[in-house]
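Translate sequence into structure tokens.
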Amino acid sequence: MEQNIENQGKKRVLTMDVLLSKELEYMLKTGEYREGMRLPSERQLAEHFGVQRGTIRSALQILLDKGIVISRERSGYFVAPRRIDFNLNAYDSRKAVIEQMGKSSYVKLLTFEKVYVSEKMAAKTALVEDSQVYRIMRLRFANGSPMALERTHIRCDLAPGLSEEDVHNKSIYAALKRKYNIYIARSEEKVTAVYANGLESELLNVSRSRPLMRYEGLVYDRRNRLIEYFDDIILKEKVQFISDEVSGSGKKKHMVR
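Result follows.
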């Protein structure tokens, strides 16, 4: 009985702004609001719910933090574009995932060059120092606007003759499979929070020091050979990472790049 009373006390910590944020979120998901539509003003919402404008403002801030709405100076609040779900455990094409949501997708090749593995990269990835990798940098777009700066490194010894034509707005993994019989099997990856530097802010069209997501990892083939090291910078308002249960084999699957 004492534990039930304690739990009931914990449930009462919900404040009016939190409750309103949940009601507004439900309204946006079940009503006729679509991506990009303007919400009623703070005054109109306050009158509708019978609360102070400060409470509405606080509730909207919760939705801003969750990425459900966006704010435009002197214009008000708008329904945020739906974020793209990237499953960390699924072997799905990014292009296919984006297009399944009704959005267009393409990648622009920025650089394609051979470089030597530095001491720092070798320590981070277990790639052999001074061995060569293809350094490929591409800018991915969704619905015509930049979504991610993709930076990948592919071992040259396993893919001799890989060319710009193989990776320009095409799946890199499809090229590896077709030309070199390399089948991607698993990956080790992580997502961290970072801030945009000068190059990233320019390419992604955001302000410098804007919070972003860094998605990096190592990719292995069926023979357990390290094939790729990737280090992507992604707009957090465009993408959210989800993770299903690990497959029966116990191995994580990696997205087709």
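Note: The mean pLDDT is 84.
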